[in-house]
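Input structure tokens:
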């Protein structure tokens, strides 16, 4: 549109007033009304709204985009160390904003330095910007490879800035940053000597800490991630002259190779263009090709030997010297090499081995990362302060411009971007460093059985970010379904958990079922199905809480289907046992329905976590508590207790029926004592969990009664609609359980009959309060007994692991919840609540078991 056309606009307000006399201006339109004509539809209206609206039109305010030259002209390269520190902290804050859900174009790439790393000549900013760029690229690659960010695909779509980037090697970047760290150390000491002030040393140390933080992040990721994700140069083939493709990661001195080739070509005599087909010439030509292949191989080997390793994740074992003291042996080696080279279909002998995370080195570096992150948090204050002490979007810093990378902003409906302050970002990185430390130490311990494997993943992902959630997935399954790149798959922890807790006959070597081919095949079918489900469920922990919950709904249906495979194994087990005349009927089997109980136990556990996610996401409202907590207490907790008690019964029966339990052979006494000690330890853990679940069922029963009390007092209001509306809400909440069958598929009539909810609304108020208080008191007594059990049997529990300590903390929190609710019951009975604030409070560690607070 030309500039002249703007002056031709005509006011049409009088037309609106004429058509609607009640309107004296545009404000006279009612809410929701809009002016339209047949040729001005809703689509055009929305397009018109987008034009010149800063939040919806990326072109607004983009008449001049800041460049690196502009930032330099504004003083970016000046000797202002506080400003340089502020720029580094602001860049780290933008990375946090990106990882928290905003796009790269509105966060990280608002720093013009990151798109122009090759042009930066500043000794501090050049290595820092190169390191941040590679860090962002590696995180970007990690998240895309894991594929767990379904809710924000536009933020992680391929970006031109990534596609057109020439990446420096991580090793070269780290060398640059470490050299600058040493320069900062010398500079700080020199300034301190000249001025006699410690401030110079402090601010130089602070800048050095930011550089070290980036180097540690890059190195840790190289130890924990496969090179094809972490290394942008991994397996890039370079073609030079007539040579075979050379891997860029193994050979970088390409110019040297080119010069050698040019020198050889000058020395070689010119050959006739007519090919001589005589046998002698053919043999000579063949030998020449052999020599050339041998020479190319020698080049590659020499390059490998001379060039430093590009990835510390794969420290190669020191190989013995190929030159042997025995000449004949050396000739044999050469002959063997020639034979290998003559084979047309021979693959490379240097195929990379399966990647396995290096937890030992990563743990050492992550420990240092925690220290550096705390140092960064404590030195943020040394940076330049923003206008009015507000960081904002950091446009007050020279290299930042919110429109700097406007072409990279995703073409989608705009979302508001929350930029963390530098201090908030420093705290975020401190927490992230702790999560990385946990990932470096705990995963190997979490693969003992399927319960530990999933418990760790659940607890870790609750407070983790997309970066560390993705890192967990890559650590546990680097390339395929093998755990941590080793020889173990998910089937082994599943089988260990099944064998140790439910001991089916098919896993008992002394049982005839173990040697039955059909039973073994049916069991393998079950194990394969269970393993696939375990991998799918574990991969869901890489997603955010909402996506996890969606995937768990599908997992519930799949796990219910696996009951069919478990039933086939159970049926064949009964047939074999009866045919072998070991039992007269299937009920006499000591491990009757053991595999089905195992599947049901895990099904109840997934349902529990499904509801826990609902509470963490604040999906439930207080007027729904009566039926939510009825299910958690009466169905979930009690059936969990039932499966645990069945597990204990199966283990005890199996032990009593084994020959080892009654043996008098002195040679087997040590084995017998070890098995008895292991059995005792498992029984202690089972009893611990049974008491814990019983206390939870009592707490849930008390919360149901407290919820009814709050509704009756008018503190919690139920929406209008009556009993039919409540039925619809109930069915909606338990819709994911419809296909599971009894006892997990519940209905509204069952809820009303079991809880006698109508009677609770009629009983005298003080009696109902007393009944709720009694539930909490009984739960408190059980938890105190549980705590005593832990103290008395501490040596028998896994108290040296994170999981058992977490369970102890959960029991302690439950005890506090019961005490708080007991106090609330007394206050409800004695206090006038008028003018008081009464609300449910959700503990951070256990949000699904709230306590009532009265203020």
């Amino acid at each position: 549109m030309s500039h002249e056309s703007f002056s031709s606009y005509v006011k049409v307000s009088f037309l609106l007033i004429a058509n609607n006399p009640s309107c004296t201006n545009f404000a006279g339109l009612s809410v929701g009304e809009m002016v339209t004509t047949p040729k001005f539809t809703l689509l055009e209206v929305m397009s018109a709204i987008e034009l010149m609206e800063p939040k919806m039109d990326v072109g607004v305010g983009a008449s001049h985009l800041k460049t690196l030259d502009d930032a330099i002209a504004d003083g970016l390269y000046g000797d202002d160390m506080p400003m340089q520190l502020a720029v580094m902290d602001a860049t780290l804050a933008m990375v946090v904003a990106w990882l928290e859900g905003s796009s790269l174009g509105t966060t990280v790439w608002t720093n013009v330095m990151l798109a122009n790393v090759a042009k930066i000549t500043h000794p501090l900013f050049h290595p820092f910007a190169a390191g941040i760029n590679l860090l962002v690229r590696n995180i970007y690659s990690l998240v895309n490879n894991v594929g767990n960010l379904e809710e924000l695909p536009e933020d992680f779509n391929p970006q031109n800035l990534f596609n057109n980037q020439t990446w420096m090697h991580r090793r070269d970047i780290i060398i640059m940053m470490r050299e600058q760290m040493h320069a900062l150390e010398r500079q700080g000491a020199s300034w301190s000597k000249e001025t006699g002030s410690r401030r110079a040393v402090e601010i130089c140390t602070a800048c050095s800490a930011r550089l070290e933080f980036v180097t540690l992040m890059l190195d840790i990721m190289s130890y924990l991630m496969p090179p094809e994700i972490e290394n942008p140069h991994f397996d890039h083939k370079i073609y030079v002259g007539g040579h075979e493709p050379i891997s860029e990661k193994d050979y970088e001195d390409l110019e040297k190779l080119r010069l050698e080739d040019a020198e050889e070509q000058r020395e070689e005599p010119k050959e006739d263009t007519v090919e001589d087909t005589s046998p002698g010439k053919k043999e000579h030509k063949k030998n020449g090709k052999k020599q050339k292949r041998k020479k190319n191989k020698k080049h590659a080997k020499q390059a490998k030997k001379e060039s430093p390793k590009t990835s510390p994740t794969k420290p190669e074992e020191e190989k013995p010297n190929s030159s042997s003291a025995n000449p004949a042996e050396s000739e044999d080696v050469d002959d063997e090499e020639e034979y290998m080279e003559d084979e047309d279909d021979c693959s490379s002998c240097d195929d990379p081995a399966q990647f396995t995370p290096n937890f030992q080195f990563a743990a050492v570096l992550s420990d240092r990362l925690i220290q550096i992150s705390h140092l960064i948090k404590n030195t943020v204050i040394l940076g330049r302060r923003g206008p009015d002490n507000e960081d904002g979007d950091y446009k007050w810093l020279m290299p930042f411009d919110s429109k700097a990378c406007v072409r990279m902003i995703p073409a989608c409906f705009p979302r508001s971007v929350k930029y963390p302050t530098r201090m908030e970002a420093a705290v975020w990185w401190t927490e992230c460093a702790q999560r990385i430390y946990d990932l470096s130490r705990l995963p190997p311990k979490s693969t003992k059985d399927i319960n530990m494997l999933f418990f760790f993943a659940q607890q870790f992902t609750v407070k983790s970010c997309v970066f560390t959630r993705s890192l967990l997935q890559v650590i546990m399954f680097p390339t395929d379904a093998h755990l941590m790149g080793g020889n173990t798959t998910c089937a082994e922890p599943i089988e260990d958990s099944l064998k140790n807790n439910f001991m089916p006959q098919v896993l008992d070597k002394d049982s005839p079922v173990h040697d039955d081919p059909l039973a073994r095949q049916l069991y393998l079918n079950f194990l394969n199905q269970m393993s696939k489900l375990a991998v799918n469920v574990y991969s869901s922990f890489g997603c955010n809480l909402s996506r996890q919950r969606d995937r768990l709904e599908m997992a519930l249906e799949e796990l219910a289907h696996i009951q069919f495979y478990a039933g086939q194994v159970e049926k064949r087990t009964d047939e074999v046992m009866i045919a072998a005349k070991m039992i007269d009927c299937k009920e006499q089997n000591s491990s009757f329905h053991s595999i089905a109980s195992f599947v049901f136990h895990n099904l109840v556990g997934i349902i529990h976590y499904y509801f826990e996610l609902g509470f963490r996401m604040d999906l439930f409202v207080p007027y729904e508590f009566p039926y939510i907590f009825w299910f958690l207490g009466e169905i979930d907790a009690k059936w969990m207790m039932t499966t645990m008690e069945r597990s204990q019964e199966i283990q005890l029966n199996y032990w009593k029926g084994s020959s080892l339990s009654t043996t008098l052979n002195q040679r087997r006494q040590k084995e017998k004592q070890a098995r008895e000690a292991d059995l005792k330890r498992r029984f202690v853990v089972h009893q611990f969990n049974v008491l814990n679940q019983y206390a939870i069922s009592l707490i849930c029963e008390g919360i149901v009664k407290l919820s009814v009390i709050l509704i009756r007092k008018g503190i919690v209001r139920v929406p209008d609609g009556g009993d039919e509306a409540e039925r619809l809400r109930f069915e909606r909440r338990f819709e994911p359980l419809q296909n599971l069958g009894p006892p997990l598929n519940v209905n509204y009539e069952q809820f009303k009959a079991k809880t006698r909810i109508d009677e609770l609304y009629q009983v005298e108020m003080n009696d109902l309060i007393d009944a709720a208080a009694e539930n909490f008191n009984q739960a408190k007594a059980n938890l105190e007994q549980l705590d005593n059990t832990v103290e008395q049997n501490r040596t028998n529990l896994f108290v040296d692991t994170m999981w058992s300590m977490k369970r102890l903390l959960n029991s302690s929190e439950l005890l506090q919840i019961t005490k708080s609710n007991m106090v609330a019951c007394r206050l409800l009975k004695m206090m006038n609540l008028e003018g008081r604030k009464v609300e449910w409070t959700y503990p951070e560690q256990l949000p699904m078991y709230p306590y009532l607070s009265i203020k």
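Strands lie at 237-238, 246-247, 838-841, 851-854. The CA atoms of residues 669 and 848 lie 47 Å apart.
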